[in-house]
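User: Could you go from structure to sequence for me? I need the amino acid at each position, not a summary. Structure tokens:
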């Protein structure tokens, strides 16, 4: 049977008691008295020694518990301080400062992948900050005394919390940017719609409405000629009114086609662009080259938006030139859809003429660039991200 270490202190008392027992056995009363007295004194001394040792041990353990509680309070306070920071870079710097404070060590925040200079292993420790398995930084702590297991655990907790806080700050910043972009795009969309309505109203007022008013006056004149029995004059006026009426119908049909052609709704983007190219080519004696093989998976919104962009770019090219050749190309490029309208016209086009195209591209979450086209002309390029350009279920 193993004797507990604390009870070894009673061994002298046991020996003295045994000596007293020998005295009783041999009839030596004085030896018995001395032995038992010494046993009592030794037992009392051992008991007091154990009592003081236990009190000292409890005091040490209490001090350690108080120190641990204080340290944990400081760690929680540091986490709260770090969590109040909103920028990822500031979070890393605040983590470094808090680590210096709670561990009383020199702290460094190293970029991902950077290795520190050599240092004694027991005096320098490195804690990587990882987000989804990817290291974003490393916290290095260095001090004169060694780091025990508790320090390592607590520093690991601090590093993990800082990594999560930095990731949350980054996501929040990205969300704010996306919200700002969404608000800006919404405002641009409203502005573009207002401009489109304004252009449509001006066209109707200056075109078909004026024509219909003129037709009404001509019909009034024809009625007056008939009443005056001037039938030849009435016939001429009616013929002119009929021709103007037909022109007005053609202009309204063209307007309907330009807003959203029936072929775009019924047959798709490629067929609508080919029909428009045939119309432009015949009416303006222009060669229009098409490459629309990559347009098969365009979403409906992207089809309408890109069609209007192509129509606007071609109309501008004709107004400033006109060119002799126009190229319209839709291609897949690095997961994005790029549409390019280039011409060989030499007329100068101002920046303001591209604003309508840029607004339409932004409503599709795309971007527009303008560069040199063939033979000194202009090339308008609109790139849409794949998620905005392709229809659901496409590969």
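Assistant: Here is the amino acid at each position, in order:
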């Amino acid at each position: 049977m193993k004797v507990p270490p604390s009870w070894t202190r009673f061994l002298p008392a046991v020996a003295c008691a045994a000596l007293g027992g020998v005295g009783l056995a041999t009839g030596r009363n004085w030896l018995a008295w001395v032995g038992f007295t010494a046993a009592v004194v030794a037992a009392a001394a051992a008991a007091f020694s154990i009592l003081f040792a236990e009190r000292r041990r409890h005091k040490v353990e209490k001090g350690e518990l108080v120190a641990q509680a204080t340290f944990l309070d400081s760690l929680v306070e540091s986490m709260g301080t770090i969590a109040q920071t909103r920028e990822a870079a500031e979070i890393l710097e605040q983590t470094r400062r808090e680590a210096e404070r709670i561990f009383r060590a020199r702290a460094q925040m190293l970029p991902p992948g950077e290795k520190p200079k050599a240092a004694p292993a027991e005096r320098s420790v490195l804690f990587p900050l990882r987000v989804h398995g990817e290291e974003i930084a490393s916290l290095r702590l260095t001090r004169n005394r060694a780091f025990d297991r508790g320090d390592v655990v607590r520093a690991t907790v601090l590093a993990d919390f800082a990594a999560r806080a930095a990731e949350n700050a980054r996501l929040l910043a990205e969300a704010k940017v996306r919200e700002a972009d969404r608000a800006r795009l919404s405002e641009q969309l409203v502005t573009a719609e207002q401009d489109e309505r304004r252009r449509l109203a001006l066209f109707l007022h200056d075109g078909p409405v004026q024509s219909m008013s003129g037709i009404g006056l001509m019909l009034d004149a024809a009625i007056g000629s008939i009443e005056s029995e001037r039938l030849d004059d009435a016939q001429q006026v009616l013929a002119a009114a009929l021709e103007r009426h037909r022109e007005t119908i053609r202009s309204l049909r063209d307007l309907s086609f330009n807003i959203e052609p029936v072929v775009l709704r019924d047959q798709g983007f490629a067929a609508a662009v080919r029909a428009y190219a045939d119309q432009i080519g015949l009416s303006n004696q222009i060669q229009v080259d098409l490459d629309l093989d990559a347009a098969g998976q365009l979403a409906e919104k992207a089809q309408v938006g890109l069609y209007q962009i192509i129509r606007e770019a071609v109309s501008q090219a004709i107004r400033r030139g006109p060119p002799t050749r126009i190229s319209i190309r839709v291609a897949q490029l690095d997961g994005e859809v790029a549409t390019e309208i280039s011409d060989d016209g030499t007329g100068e086009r101002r920046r303001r003429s591209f604003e309508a195209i840029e607004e339409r591209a932004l409503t599709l979450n795309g971007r527009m660039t303008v560069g040199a086209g063939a033979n000194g002309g202009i090339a308008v390029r609109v790139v849409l991200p794949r998620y905005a350009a392709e229809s659901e279920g496409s590969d």
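One structural detail worth keeping in mind: The chain has a mean pLDDT of 77.
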